[in-house]
Amino acid sequence: MAINAPEGTRDLLPAEAAFWTRFKATAQDVFGRCGYQLIETPVFEQTELFVRGIGEATDVVSKEMFTTISGENLKTLVSGGTVKAKSRLSLRPEGTAGVVRAVVQHDLVPQGAAPAKLMYAGPMFRAERPQKGRQRQFNQVGIECLGAEEPSVDAEGIIMLMRFYEAVGIPRASMRLLVNSMGCEKCRPAYREAVRDFICAHAADMCEECNRRAELNPLRAFDCKNEQCAAVMEQAPKITDHLCDDCREHYETVKSYLDAASVAYVEDPTLVRGLDYYTRTVFEVQVTEGMGSQNAIGGGGRYDKLAEEVGGRPTPGFGFALGYERCVLALEAAGVAFPALPGVDVFCACVDDEARAQAFALACELRDAGLVAELDHQHRSLKSQFKLANKLGAARVVVFGPDETAQGVATVRDMATHEERPVPLDALAQVLAKPQA
Ligand code: HAM
User: Fold this and answer.
1) Which residue, 199, 280, 265, is CA-closest to 232?
2) 436 annotated among ligand-binding-site residues
3) To bridge 324 with a disulfide, which of 19, 139, 143, 192 should be the other Cys (CB 3.0-4.6 Å)?
4) Which residues pair with 44 in a beta bridge?
5) Helix (H, G, I), strand (E, B) or coil at 158
6) Which residues form the Aminoacyl-transfer RNA synthetases class-II family profile domain (predicted)?
7) 220 labeled part of a ligand binding site
């Protein structure tokens, strides 16, 4: 039986792989103009990093991590032994924890330094139940800015994210930007208590998991997918009524920058996001139609305590990530197609085996000159070579054959106008390298 790709994964076939490359290049362009530079971190990290960074009580860490034990350690475990914590590795479910770990490890933000502005693009792994827009391996593009707590960082990030979506073709009118503030370590504990008390008072109307969450991490109840819980939580206390003065001012300033840039947003005081590291600003971008329940194409926020959680000195941070596959679904919903792959410039055809070496040599020469050149590798007839050239979108076909060779020429056919002309063999490369009239 044929083996298919694992459930929840997707192959990016050439047309899409080319689009993914362009998508990343657009991100580098848009984010690069705000000073963000590429960083690459490993796709797996010590499990402990995610437990401490993202939070043990989050779904991402408690239910969705792909945790691996490498060969020798697996044998040790199976035979009843124990392995060191640093040998417990997990595929990254998101990029922030790894980037913050790298910033701390390499001291990228020494005291008094300018903020580190970093961007990344690559696969993330979450063992979720696959459905449309939800995969087990998916691609994210993200940014992290470490070392500045000014609200201008948050606004700059949100504005450039919205610019990016538009640059890849997602219509602004199809997106909704939700913003909220999660408060800080001064104001959030009291708010958390208030939510816990609220859940306890409505325990009978809420699911078992939310009742458990009340003790462990009550704010997670805002994320519960159970409709009854969601209805109850609509009446829960709002964080925006509990913000301290500093957090309120920070939030107001972020919003004023967005207003000044004419970036429309909706305030959503129930937006808490699924990761525990957030403080102050949180936001999410949703697509309003055609995406079903997995309609968040990106999101992020501020995480001023995360660097300390993973062993670094206090370093405020802000970032976001966007889901590539969901952006593709949003583009499909908006009727935007992948751009066509670039076609072949010249197809080098041959009438018989004698001429095959000439076609091969010309293809090599043209490629060296920077053209996209193709030729037959399957012993096709000349007619079938023309069919293939057509399929590949070749602009011109060069035919080598005994008659042509006897006259010291090859026939060059313009596939758009169907014009044919003989070109001396020693002038071929030069003629073909010129752009078509
Ligand atoms: P997140 O909201 O968990 O945030 O993920 C960001 C985006 O990744 C989502 O909005 C969605 O588009 C996409 N995504 C998430 N899970 C899946 C999945 N299973 N299948 C397909 N797409 C998915 C983070 O990951 C944070 N690290 C963002 C951040 C950066 N916050 C601060 N800095």
Assistant:
1) 199
2) no
3) 139
4) 91
5) helix
6) 1-339
7) no
| Domain ranges in the chain with CATH number 3.40.50.800 | 346-433
| Residues having CB within 6 Å of any atom of ligand 1 | 94-96, 126, 128, 133-135, 138, 140, 142, 144, 274-275, 296-301, 319-323, 325-326
CATH class of 14-173+278-333: alpha beta
Both structure tokens of 168: 């890849």
> Which pTM was predicted?
0.93
State the virtual CA torsion across 163, 169, 174, 178 in degrees, nearest 10.
-30
Distance CA 141, CA 143 (A): 7
Delimit the CATH 3.30.930.10 region(s) of the chain.
14-173+278-333
Which of 346, 380, 351 is CA-nearest to residue 366?
346
pLDDT band, very low/low/confident/very high, at 436 (cuts 50, 70, 90): low
Measured distance CA(270)–CA(158) in Å, rounded: 19
Q: Tell me, which fold does domain 346-433 have in CATH?
A: Rossmann fold (3.40.50)
